[in-house]
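Training component of the fellowship. As part of building independent skills, the fellow (R.M.) carried out the full modelling exercise for a liganded target. The chosen ligand was nicotinamide-adenine-dinucleotide. The inputs are recorded below so that the supervisory panel can assess the work.
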Amino acid sequence: MIVGVPKESYPGELRVALVPIVVPHLAKAGLEVLVEAGAGRAAGYLDSQYTGHGAKIVPRREDVFAKADIIVQVLCYGSNDITGKDDVPLLRNGQALIGFLRPFGSAQVVQQIAATGVTAFSVELMPRTTRAQSMDALSSMATVCGYKAVLAAADRLPRLFPMLTTAAGTITPARVLIVGAGVAGLQAIATARRLGAVTSAYDVRPAAKEQVQSLGGRFVELPIEAKDAQDARGYARAQDESFYARQRELLGRVVAESDVVITAAVIPGKKSPVLVTEDMVRAMAPGSVILDIAAERGGNCELTEAGKIVERHGVTIIGLINLASTVPYHASQMYARNLTAFLLHLVKDGKLSVNLEDEIVRDTLVTRGGEVVNPRVRESFSMPALVPRG
Ligand code: NAD
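Fellow's submitted model of the complex:
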C-alpha cells in the first residue's frame, strides 16, 4: 500500500500531513510513503529528510494522487474551500482519503467527494475516547491554537504580561480571561500563566472548573446554570438565547476588567454563540485585546472579522483563523503522529480494513462506494438514512 502526501494547497497553509520521523513506523506496517516534492519545506522538513527516512519524492502532484492507495492531507477539499476543488478530478474510486474534511460544512461538497468513489475519513469526527486519543487531530491542533492565541494577543497588548519588580518601579501583571475551557482554552490558560498573567476562565460545563483550577487559573463562577451543559461525548450543548443573554450580562463586568480576553467557546457543528457584544467591547480599557479563536465558526465576539485584526472602540480584536498553521513544525509533527496512529489502526495485513463494527472507523468514515455513508453527516444535511445493503 502506498500513502501519498501532496503539498498542502490552501493559501498560506504551512503544515504537511506526514513528517519524516513517522515514515519508518508506517514502513513497518507495510506502508510505503510517497511525498510531493517540497511538501514539507514550509514546515521545516526537507525532501532529503523524507528520503533519509525511507520515503520517495515525486515531482508532480498528479503522480502522488495517481500512485497512492491512501491520500493524506491536512486540509482536504471541504476544509480547503479555496483550492481544494482542484484535487477532486485527481481522486479515484476505491482510493482512501484522510484529513480535515469539514464534514458538516456543505452538502454539495461532501456529495462531490462521495461522487469520486473515494473512501473518505474525516479526522474531525474522531470519537473523544481514550482508545482514540492518539488519533485525535482536533485536540492536537486545538492545543497549538490555544498556545499561539496567547502569544498573538500578548504581541498586540501594549502591556507586559508578568509582574515585574524593577528599579523603574513595579509592573502589575496582565489580567487574562479565557472564555471556553476546552482543549484550546486550557492550553491558553497554561500559556498565559507561564507568561505570568493573572488568568481566569469560564466555561458552561461544570467539569471544566477543576481543570481550570488544576492549571492555576481562577474559575469564574456565574450565578446561572446551563441545562444539560454537556452531551454524552463531552461537548457543550447549545443553550437558548435567554441563557446567552444572561451570560453576556454577567460576563460583562469580568470582561471590562480584563486586559486580554481569549474566546474559545464553540458548539460542534453549530455557529459559535456571541458572548462578547459591542457594548462589552466599549467598556474595556483602551489597548485591550480580544483574540477570538472561534472566529472561523462565526466568532464569540460580535465585532470579530474572520481572518482580520481590527480595532474597535480602542480595543484590538484578532480574528485570525488557522492559528495552528502558524506553528507548522510542531503542528505537523503532532498531526503526523495522529495520522500514523490512525493509519496503523486502519491497515491490517497491508490492506485497508473498513471494519464498521469499530467505533473509530464507523464515526470517521464519511464517504464510500459513491455515497455519503456517515449517519450524522446525512442527518445534518437532512439526507434520508441509508438502507443497509443485503
Ligand atoms: P470545543 O472546541 O467543542 O469547545 C470549547 C469549549 O467551549 C468547551 O469546553 C465548551 O464547553 C465551551 N463552551 C461552549 N459554549 C460555551 C458558552 N456559552 N460559554 C462558555 N463556554 C462555552 O471543545 P473541545 O476542546 O473539543 O473539548 C470538548 C470536550 O471534550 C471537553 O470536555 C474535553 O475535555 C473533551 N475531550 C476529551 C478527549 C478524550 O477523552 N480523548 C479529547 C479531547 C477533548
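The panel noted the following from the submitted structure. The pocket of nicotinamide-adenine-dinucleotide is lined by residues 128-129, 133, 136, 139, 142, 179-185, 202-205, 208, 234-236, 247, 264-268, 273, 275 (CB under 6 Å). Residues 137-156 form the longest helix (20 residues).
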